[in-house]
Design goal:
This protein has 3 helices and 4 strands, in the order ββββααα. It has a two-stranded antiparallel sheet. Strands 3-4 form a two-stranded antiparallel sheet. It binds zinc ion (2 copies).
Length: 120
């Protein structure tokens, strides 16, 4: 592949416009290649956006894990309460058992969503 700007052999492709650039025509922005002057600013913006997205992604994963904690604990306590009080309270334990299952379900969904964010 030849450089877009001169007759030199290209060393890479500009992250912004996709043109081939040689050592003389290329600028390094962060870890990316850019056309010197004409694309440097755009590549800087692209890199910045990408980095911010990644940070937000990781933060979201943490938030979802925290969302799972409260219903998860409530679910475990409700189910535990229902199991230990089984004989004496009748229908009330049924309510706690149902609530416990729902809470654990909600915690599971929150954890699943958090995992989606963690993937890439
Ligand atoms: Zn060149
Ligand atoms: Zn370019």
């Amino acid at each position: 592949m030849k450089c877009f700007y001169d007759a030199h052999e290209a060393v890479g492709v500009c992250k912004n416009c996709g043109r081939g650039v040689c050592n003389d025509s290329a600028a390094i922005v962060g870890k990316s290649l850019a056309c010197k002057a004409s694309c440097e600013e755009e590549v800087g913006v692209l890199n910045d956006l990408f980095f911010r997205n990644r940070t937000i992604y990781r933060r979201n994963a943490g938030i979802y894990t925290r969302y799972a904690l409260v219903p998860g604990l409530l679910g475990v306590f409700s189910l535990g309460y229902a199991l230990f009080q089984q004989d004496s309270l009748g229908s009330i334990t049924g309510f706690y058992a149902g609530a416990g299952v729902l809470m654990l379900f909600a915690a599971g969904i929150a954890l699943y969503n958090g995992r989606q964010f963690r993937k890439p």
